[in-house]
């Protein structure tokens, strides 16, 4: 245990720091790190190196090379840089490499060197060029800050939603500031810069001079500044050899620390540590590393090679040509267990477990001591927590075995924390492997800084699909969030392999994915289409069960006819209409109509659409199909809907009649010709008689003539259009009754024998409440309707006599139903006697 703490270095009385090796770097660097532009992503992310040919001592003809490595030095990508001079490199939160050029253009590359996109930082930056740049991270995303040759700052807080802000001018600034950095306060990005002994804070509205509280006197210049990983703390290095450290708001002073190395001070990186027992800053010289804090002593390390520092949430990564190390404060749980002569519960439990393995009775003594103090639960928890902070699997196992040993002597210790720690460590050890190269610590992984979903996304970005799937299955994540999502990413990568045939790729994807829930074949097909593999996209769409997802992509690929077939197969009329409207805009009219002829359902739906929206197109459709029957109906509707002049209406009807003749529908043709005759006659009647005749039906025209007293014309019209006598008599009877021209009605009834009988006369007169006239016609009604006519005029007694005479049971019942009260009592008795006599016979 004493040996285990050999690399612990105390800083003051309350904190220890240790530095251990993450990887032995096997990358083959041809140049020193100081000769390259270097960018390393946080959270154990990749490393980008751009060999800098723009230095004066380099030949201008040498092309720079951009190399991307994992944190363990495994090459991921290498490409020749063919664009302009680069000022700065940096990684976004999504692990995209941002390359800021001298002309203000920012080129974005993927983890494997694939070009994603580019954007510009504005015309002002283009004109004045870029002197310096910073890539920073906020809760909104990754941002870029630019210092131009005009000594002005331009900033965008989120490159995913680019909004450029030109920061206020610093008064009197004639040269580049000695140092500057970005700060994030109150959800807003600021610029902090040093000009001689003065500090200025730029926000979107103003430039403010700030004075750090408690700053040592005599400062004439700030040489370097660094902000903590969480943007909560700030460190300033002055020309007097002191470091000021405080909050990023510059309102709280944590302390000043004197640096003994004042001569030729040239710090490369400075990283402050938040949430530590002993506030500290890591300072790097070319071959020296120091950890300084409030304590008078500092920790010093000698670096064998040029090194680069990467700030992390809980420490600093240090990599050189040969090694990649991690410097961090020893966590409290580890310190309690492993420090020399520790009597902490966790330390005693670890010793007890080791003695138990040796089959020594000391195990019982250690265990009893912990139990007597009532600290066994605390001991188990300390061992579990300390295991999470250890990098070596053997030490993790030792601590977990101790925790498991202690749990055996507890009745109700919840197993969740132990099980979760075992799971987390297994995942962490898997991704820390040299071939994977993601050296995550437990704190970054567990404490909501890098969730399991983000870790899976990073494995997918590295195309480590098998490992990602194994982690999902091991953690039993829901398929939609785990395996299905990763398989979908794998399929999207698979379609980019252009050396494999479309048929093989589609078959491989279907065999692997099958009907996996949460996987959209349309998304994979869209990626294939984006890669220029249209035929592969079509093959993949065959596996997509949702037509609503198939059709839009087929339209985008200009496979409209196939999209129409898929839409028809789905039975979704809205989808069919969508494709039809797209086809209409894409094809010329002839090709469009020919396409419709091959799809009867689509043709029918389009006709319905045209009936309400495009009547002329509907006519063209009927002409194309030689559908004379529908064409005739179309012209009839058009004659009334579109034409107001009688000549135009008659012409449209003539066209309709011709179409009906072509369709061999003589009835419709004759009816249309009769309508034309009627329209001409109605126009002539309006001219001669006045009044409104147009658009009346034939019956209404006859009725109007009768009401106007033009009986002769009405009779002539009936003869011309062969109106049957019965219908004419009904029309005339109704019209004369409406006029209450009873004398003319009587003459009309006597003009000849009525083809409709005389009961209608009785009914019409009673409808007009004229019983007197009705009685005239009741006597003329035939025997079979006599009873009904007499009942209509209210002569119940005579109706009873006629019914008895006819000996008709139905008529007797009808009369009896009309007998009411005492007035008809005698009639009712008479009917009953007649019924009785009829029954005797």
TrEMBL record:
<dbReference type="InterPro" id="IPR038132">
    <property type="entry name" value="Vps16_C_sf"/>
</dbReference>
<keyword id="KW-0813">Transport</keyword>
<dbReference type="InterPro" id="IPR006925">
    <property type="entry name" value="Vps16_C"/>
</dbReference>
<keyword id="KW-0967">Endosome</keyword>
<dbReference type="GO" id="GO:0030897">
    <property type="term" value="C:HOPS complex"/>
</dbReference>
<dbReference type="GO" id="GO:0042144">
    <property type="term" value="P:vacuole fusion, non-autophagic"/>
</dbReference>
<keyword id="KW-0472">Membrane</keyword>
<dbReference type="GO" id="GO:0005769">
    <property type="term" value="C:early endosome"/>
</dbReference>
<feature type="domain" description="Vps16 C-terminal">
    <location>
        <begin position="519"/>
        <end position="837"/>
    </location>
</feature>
<dbReference type="GO" id="GO:0097352">
    <property type="term" value="P:autophagosome maturation"/>
</dbReference>
<keyword id="KW-0653">Protein transport</keyword>
<feature type="domain" description="Vps16 N-terminal">
    <location>
        <begin position="4"/>
        <end position="420"/>
    </location>
</feature>
<dbReference type="Pfam" id="PF04840">
    <property type="entry name" value="Vps16_C"/>
</dbReference>
<dbReference type="InterPro" id="IPR006926">
    <property type="entry name" value="Vps16_N"/>
</dbReference>
<comment type="similarity">
    <text>Belongs to the VPS16 family.</text>
</comment>
<feature type="coiled-coil region">
    <location>
        <begin position="349"/>
        <end position="376"/>
    </location>
</feature>
<protein>
    <recommendedName>
        <fullName>Vacuolar protein sorting-associated protein 16 homolog</fullName>
    </recommendedName>
</protein>
<comment type="function">
    <text>Plays a role in vesicle-mediated protein trafficking to lysosomal compartments including the endocytic membrane transport and autophagic pathways. Believed to act as a core component of the putative HOPS and CORVET endosomal tethering complexes.</text>
</comment>
<dbReference type="GO" id="GO:0003779">
    <property type="term" value="F:actin binding"/>
</dbReference>
<dbReference type="Pfam" id="PF04841">
    <property type="entry name" value="Vps16_N"/>
</dbReference>
<dbReference type="InterPro" id="IPR016534">
    <property type="entry name" value="VPS16"/>
</dbReference>
<dbReference type="GO" id="GO:0005765">
    <property type="term" value="C:lysosomal membrane"/>
</dbReference>
<dbReference type="GO" id="GO:0033263">
    <property type="term" value="C:CORVET complex"/>
</dbReference>
<keyword id="KW-0458">Lysosome</keyword>
<comment type="subunit">
    <text>Core component of at least two putative endosomal tethering complexes, the homotypic fusion and vacuole protein sorting (HOPS) complex and the class C core vacuole/endosome tethering (CORVET) complex. Their common core is composed of the class C Vps proteins VPS11, VPS16, VPS18 and VPS33A, which in HOPS further associates with VPS39 and VPS41 and in CORVET with VPS8 and TGFBRAP1. Interacts with RAB5C. Interacts with STX17, MON1B. Associates with adapter protein complex 3 (AP-3) and clathrin:AP-3 complexes.</text>
</comment>
<dbReference type="GO" id="GO:0031902">
    <property type="term" value="C:late endosome membrane"/>
</dbReference>
<dbReference type="GO" id="GO:0055037">
    <property type="term" value="C:recycling endosome"/>
</dbReference>
<dbReference type="GO" id="GO:0006886">
    <property type="term" value="P:intracellular protein transport"/>
</dbReference>
<keyword id="KW-0175">Coiled coil</keyword>
<dbReference type="GO" id="GO:0016197">
    <property type="term" value="P:endosomal transport"/>
</dbReference>
<dbReference type="GO" id="GO:0008333">
    <property type="term" value="P:endosome to lysosome transport"/>
</dbReference>
